[in-house]
Design goal:
By secondary structure, the chain is an all-alpha fold. The protein has 2 domains: 77 residues, Orthogonal Bundle (434 Repressor (Amino-terminal Domain)), CATH 1.10.260.40; 41 residues. Helix content is 61%, strand content 0%. The protein is built from 6 helices and no strands. α1 crosses α3 and α2 packs across α3. The N terminus is likely disordered.
């Protein structure tokens, strides 16, 4: 299993997480990386936390300073949703989609409440 942290749904690594992982792999401090890139340590920290959006040009510059080259590609997302269900839902009129979404929200709330009650009873 990869040590990269990724989005829980699509398995996509964020630019900040990529920078942090590569910086650690290259045994660089934020300050050392910032010096190589020509920016501040606080800018690297903001990028790693995801508090600052990173352009492709900036990401390329940061990775290049670590001897890495970003590669932009595409692949079909491994989705947890069934494609037929998505097509069927998109064909529904908006009012029907809204009603289905509200039903799902109600169901999720009921499950969350039931879980909270069970945890509460278990802790008593």
């Amino acid at each position: 299993m990869s040590s990269w942290i990724s989005d829980t749904v699509y398995g996509i690594t964020t630019p900040g997480r990529l920078v942090k992982e590569l910086r650690a792999r290259h045994a660089l401090s934020q300050r050392e990386l910032a010096y190589r890139v020509g920016t501040s340590q606080s800018a690297i920290a903001r990028i790693e936390r995801g508090d600052e959006d990173v352009t492709w040009t900036r990401l390329r510059s940061i990775l290049s300073a670590m001897g890495e080259e970003p590669v932009l590609g595409r692949r079909r997302l491994a989705s947890r949703y069934d494609l037929d269900d998505l097509v069927r839902e998109r064909a529904m009129p908006p009012a029907e989609r809204l009603a289905a979404g509200l039903d799902l929200n109600r169901f999720a709330s009921e499950v969350a409440l039931a879980g909270a009650r069970a945890r509460s009873r278990a802790g008593s």
